[in-house]
Amino acid sequence: MVLVYQPSGERVQQTDKKLHDQKALAEMYLLRLTDNLVTSTRSTFGYVSQGLGGLKPWILYEPRHKNAPDPFVRAMSMEPCSLKAPISACQAETIKTTPFVKYCVRIASQGLS
C-alpha cells in the first residue's frame, strides 16, 4: 500500500497565492501516478490528473433531486471534459468555440449537451 500526503489540503481555494498553487500542482501530479482514480463530477484536480496520467477515472455521482444514480461510472476516456466553453482572450464567439468542447458525461446525460 502506498500512502500519499495531500499537500493542498487547505480545504479552501486560495486564488492567486503562489504557495497554494504550487501545492495544488504537486497534488495533481501525485494523483496522476495512481493505478485507479475516483473523482467527483466537478473535480478540477481529478480532470487534470486523469489527463496527465492517461487514466480513465471512476466518476462518483452525487444524488440529485432525492434520486441516487449508480454511485460509480467509468469515464468514457481519459480526456477531461468541460462544463462550458472557455472564454478566450480574443473573446471569440461561443458558437465558434463550442464544437471543440467535450461535455461531461453527467451534463450530457441531463440533455444539456
UniProtKB/TrEMBL annotation:
It is an enzyme of class 2 (transferase). The keyword Glycoprotein applies. One of its GO terms (biological process) is cell wall biogenesis. GO terms for molecular function: galactoside 2-alpha-L-fucosyltransferase activity. It is a single-pass type II membrane protein. Its EC number is 2.4.1.-. InterPro entries: XG_FTase. Keywords: Cell wall biogenesis/degradation, Glycoprotein, Glycosyltransferase, Golgi apparatus, Transferase. Pfam families: XG_FTase (PF03254). It is found in: Golgi apparatus, Golgi stack membrane. The keyword Glycosyltransferase applies. GO terms for cellular component: Golgi cisterna membrane. Belongs to the glycosyltransferase 37 family. May be involved in cell wall biosynthesis. This is Fucosyltransferase. It comes from Brassica campestris.
